[in-house]
Amino acid sequence: MSTINNIKAVAEGITATMKKWDNVIIYGEDVGYEGGVFRATQGIQKEFGEERCFDAPISEALFAGMAIGMAMNGVRPIVEIQFQGLGWASLQNILGHVGRMRNRTRGKYFLPMVIRMPMGGGIRSLELHSEAMEVIYAHLPGVKVVCPSTPYDTKGLICAAVESNDPVIILEPTKLYRAFKQEVPDEFYTVPIGEGYKISEGSDITVVTYGAQTVDCQKAVEMLKVENPGVGVDLIDLRSIKPWDKKMVFESVKKTGRLVVVHEAVKSFSISSEIIASVQEECFEYLKAPLARCTGYDVVIPFDSGEKYFHINPYRVLEQMKKTLGFKF
Question: What is the pLDDT of residue 89?
């Protein structure tokens, strides 16, 4: 076991898969010699050589297109797009080919490829460096989307993604890269894609979140305990956005009768919209309060000086939980 942060967990996950399979490679802008803008791949080129870890030109469309061809021909590529907001050029290939290949070829070809994207705010970055657009990728049939929040889950989900025979997009919250450390096994292991994790148990309200907001929600739950020690919160970290753990969420809402979904992405047409619609369909007769969400606002992500007014914080989550708990029909 090693005690590491999220950025080190990324490196260990990539390294573990490259040791396990000789056909795993990784590339992207500055990924080789420099080790990436966040140094997630530092030392990997030295260990595995330039043929398996290399720099790519500034062309995100090329990154995704190359990976498609590689994956169809026996390679398991890991593509790093430097920031989620800089990856729009890759969407043509992701939308048009990545999720469609198995269906298009009637199962003859599949795409065991991974696309990694640092995402989200909280590090005072420039425009297009703080985007949270996970809903675009989650909307695509044939593509899996994960968003880990802890070092253990980060390494395990990277290993599971590379092992998968279907394309997986890994969204890595930049805010959490060096936020805290956790004990992580040294060997290869996987965290199942599609399974959530229950951070805390309770019977009064369900809070569902993922990515960087797991930390905000945990703080909000602790604040609620101070104000009202008798309230119990089922706090769920989805870990996997698509597929998401419907069973865990539905069972929790049927128990508590209340739901708050938390994420930093804008509110309209979001992941929370999908979760709330699904819960409404499956758990309506169990509800004790309107289904609620605490999200980013429907605006362009602000520049660094204004991001504190946009992003989720524990106080916003706390207020929404109290509002939902206090609702009376």
Answer: 86
pLDDT at 329 over 90: no
How many Cβ atoms sit within 10 Å of the Cβ of residue 203?
A: 13
pLDDT value of position 311: 87
How far apart (Å, rounded) are the C-alpha atoms in residues 147 and 303? 23
Could you give the 3-state DSSP secondary structure of residue 267?
coil
Instruction: Note the residue count of the chain.
Output: 329
C-alpha to C-alpha distance for 300 and 207, rounded to whole angstroms: 26
The tokens for 6 are 């999220």
Alpha-carbon span 272 to 8, nearest angstrom: 30
Instruction: Give alpha helix (H) positions in the chain.
Output: 6-20, 44-48, 60-72, 91-93, 101-104, 134-138, 151-163, 213-227, 246-256, 271-283, 307-310, 314-325
pLDDT on residue 309:
84
Active-site pick, 97, 129, 263, 311? 129
How many Å from the N-terminal Cα to the C-terminal Cα in the chain? 51
Summarize pLDDT for 287-320 with one digit per residue, the tens.
Answer: 999 999 999 999 998 887 788 888 899 999 999 9
pLDDT of residue 127 exceeding 90, the answer is no
- pLDDT confidence band for 63 (50 / 70 / 90): confident
Q: State how far the Cα of 82 lies from the Cα of 281, in Å rounded to an integer.
A: 38
Active site residue 129: yes
Q: Say if CB 14 and CB 47 are below 8 A apart.
A: no
Q: Please, what is the Cα angle at 141 between 167 and 128, to 5 degrees?
A: 70
The full set of domains in the chain, from first to last, is: 2-184 (3.40.50.970), 197-325 (3.40.50.920)
Q: pLDDT digits over 98-113, tens only? A: 999 999 999 999 999 9
Q: What is the DSSP string of 185-220?
A: -SS-----TT--EEEE--SSEEEEE-TTHHHHHHHH
* C-alpha–C-alpha distance, residues 209 and 196, integer Å: 10
| Closest by CA position to 108, among listed 72, 143, 80, 134 | 72
Q: Report the run of H or E that residue 164 belongs to, with start and end.
A: none
Cis peptide bond prior to 314, omega within 30° of 0:
no
Token readout for 158 is 């990277």
